[in-house]
Amino acid sequence: MKRALLMVLTTVILSSAASAELLPARGYISLYADESRSYSAYCPLPAGYLLAKVDVWVWCLPSENGLWGAEFAIGYPSNVISDRVTLNGDLSTATGDLLSGISARFDECQWDWCWIAHQTLYVNSREQTYLEVVSHSGSGVFQLYSCSNGHPAEPCLKGTNLYLNSAAPCLTVETEIGTEESTWGLLKSLFTE
Where residue 105 sits, what CATH number does that domain have? Predict the structure, then answer.
């Protein structure tokens, strides 16, 4: 019994060490158009449409010291209307918002790619723009918190931006909202429940 338990513990320790060796010295915060991190761009808004619904996913790749939390904001271009935000259910705390800055902490240390937030957006023009990770307005930086003793802040790298109305390869627009006659009340109702 003791020998079996020792073998299991050794396997866990070696697999954790092996996965930690594959992680970069500095972590990343990246924006993607889908939950599988396949796309960082959306195709152009079709001609004749007023709004296009798109998604943005905020993903983090831990550093070799693991990931306990993140602090950042998202810079939105003028042709984007932001809507609902869904936070990862594994977060223990999250304060602030994506526009001015969010500070988020996980229940447990993360050793692989993990997402922090998913947000629905609406693009209202064919102008080529992009969303990017920017500094948290309160701290003036974007950073990750490691799993080291005391969970110290670590500088991190900005990964991919999310490009809107981009050239291929891109993810097609999810929902198109036509340009038929409409009232302001009807348009506002698209963004409320």
Answer: 2.60.40.680
